[in-house]
């Protein structure tokens, strides 16, 4: 219990873990609670950082302790999270992340994982409760299919999804894709800079409605639709008076 | 001839259908600009008035004001790990106090539109939590001493909601 008070103090946790075996057992889950692939070197070499991170943690058997995982990638085409980043060894290490509850994926290139997306992300399905997608690539169906992989998903964050306009048409994807699960989605919805209104409509349609209790949005094309869809369940809403849609 | 069209009356923020709504959270720096600490401009007061007037839920009771790291004078927001400068100037502290005073004026105005329990929530990095709570306590104390919180049936509730910073909280960087 004393060690649990130190969860935000990494230095003290590290010191505790070196004291004795029982303190090590108590402190190590806190130390490895969050894992972030955070490498500036990706700007120059797409593979650096990512396998090293996994190898080190995998060798020590620490990956199952991870509860929160952020896979950071830049928006450059060759730096995005795509199937090209995985080989058999990396995939087997990646699959050891079996207890992740909070998953954040930046610049996820969903079409590159199709149709075998389950092979890459299926191990997250039973445990993930919170999903954060920043600038996901793919058609509406593909993004909804991806969200539908997580059968117990409660919280969803969608950040910075572009609208398709005159210069670029929306990718078509496979129109027959149907989500594997309809996640409960009863927690918190955070949407920032969201232009793809049709994606929201499809999500409500395919998941049989959404039932979020908390909502936060800024610069969302159709926030009225979201408020209406959660009319009976919404308990808390966070608003930004400077929202460009509200001026 | 310029033809002006009427703007839609903030239809995107109509909360009248949300019958179980209990809490409205508003981000502090969006109410009053930290760098121009005077009463909010008409679009923002219009926004707040519209949103508050659309709430029809019988369970609605709380307005939570969210303060972020950047709202606290002396917090180096871009430094890693985030830290607190202790050498803030009197001028900076005076500006911060002025910003808090303006915010409390808006809260009073909002309370005139609708009754609610006022909650001030510091949603900040874990390492600046204590400092943030101290600043908020001082702001409330200053308002109370000036008799400007008499309209509230109870004192504002102060809440701390920590965010684990990548450098200080439960993160292993390998």
Q: What does this entry look like structurally?
A:
The complex is a heterodimer of chains A (247) and B (174). By secondary structure, chain A is α/β, with parallel strands linked by helices. Chain A folds into 2 domains: 1-31, no CATH class; 33-163 and 171-238, no CATH class. Chain A has helices at 10-17, 21-31, 50-59, 88-94, 117-121, 140-147, 197-206, 223-229, and strands at 34-37, 68-71, 102-106, 130-134, 155-161, 188-194, 214-220, 236-239. Chain A has an 8-stranded parallel sheet with strand order 1-2-3-4-5-6-7-8, with no helix packed on it. In chain A, α4 (88-94) links the parallel β2 (68-71) and β3 (102-106). The longest helix of chain A is centred in the N-terminal third of the chain and has 11 residues, at 21-31. Chain A is globular, with a radius of gyration of 19 Å. The mean pLDDT of chain A is 84. Chain B starts with 22 loop residues before the first strand and ends with a strand. Chain B has a 4-stranded parallel sheet with strand order 1-2-5-6. Chain B has one domain. The model of chain B is unreliable at 1-7 and 166-174 (pLDDT under 50). In chain B, β5, α4 (129-145) and β6 form a beta-alpha-beta unit. Chain B has 174 residues and is α/β, with parallel strands linked by helices. The longest helix of chain B has 24 residues, at 90-113. The interface between A and B is large, with 41 and 41 residues. β1 of chain A pairs parallel with β7 of chain B, so a sheet runs across the interface.
């Amino acid at each position: 219990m004393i060690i649990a008070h130190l969860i935000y103090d990494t230095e003290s946790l590290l010191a505790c873990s070196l004291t004795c075996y029982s303190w090590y057992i108590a402190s190590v889950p806190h130390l490895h609670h969050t894992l972030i692939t955070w490498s500036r070197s990706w700007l120059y070499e797409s593979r650096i950082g990512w396998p090293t991170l996994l190898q080190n943690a995998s060798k020590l058997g620490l990956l199952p302790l991870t509860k929160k995982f952020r896979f950071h990638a830049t928006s450059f085409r060759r730096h995005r999270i795509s199937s090209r980043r995985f080989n058999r060894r990396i995939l087997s290490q990646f699959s050891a992340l079996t207890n992740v509850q909070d998953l954040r994926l930046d610049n996820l290139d969903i079409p590159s994982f199709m149709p075998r997306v389950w092979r890459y992300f299926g191990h997250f399905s039973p445990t993930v409760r919170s999903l954060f997608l920043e600038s996901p690539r793919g058609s509406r169906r593909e993004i909804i299919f991806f969200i539908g992989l997580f059968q117990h998903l409660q919280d969803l964050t969608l950040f910075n999804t572009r609208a398709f306009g005159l210069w670029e048409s929306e990718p078509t994807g496979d129109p027959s894709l149907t989500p594997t699960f309809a996640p409960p989605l009863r927690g918190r919805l955070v949407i920032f800079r969201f232009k793809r209104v049709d994606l929201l409509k499809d999500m409500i349609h395919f998941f049989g409605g959404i039932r979020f209790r908390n909502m936060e949005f800024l610069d969302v094309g159709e926030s009225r639709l979201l408020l209406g869809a959660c009319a009976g369940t919404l308990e808390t809403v966070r608003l930004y008076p400077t929202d460009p849609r509200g001026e | 001839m310029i033809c002006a069209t009427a703007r839609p009356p903030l239809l995107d923020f109509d909360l009248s259908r949300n019958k179980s709504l209990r809490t409205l959270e508003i981000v502090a720096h969006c109410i009053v600009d930290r760098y121009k600490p005077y009463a909010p401009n008409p679009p923002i007061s219009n926004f707040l008035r519209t949103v508050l007037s659309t709430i029809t839920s019988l369970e609605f009771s709380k307005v939570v004001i969210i303060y972020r790291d950047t709202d606290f004078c002396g917090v180096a927001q871009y430094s890693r790990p985030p830290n607190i400068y202790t050498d803030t100037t009197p001028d900076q502290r005076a500006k911060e106090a002025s910003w808090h005073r303006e915010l409390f004026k808006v809260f009073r105005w909002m309370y005139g539109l609708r009754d609610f329990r006022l909650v001030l929530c510091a949603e900040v990095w874990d390492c600046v939590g204590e400092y943030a709570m101290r600043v908020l306590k001082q702001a409330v104390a200053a308002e109370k001493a000036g008799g400007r919180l008499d309209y509230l049936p109870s004192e504002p509730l102060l809440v701390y909601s920590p965010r684990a910073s990548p450098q200080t909280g439960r993160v292993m960087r390998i």
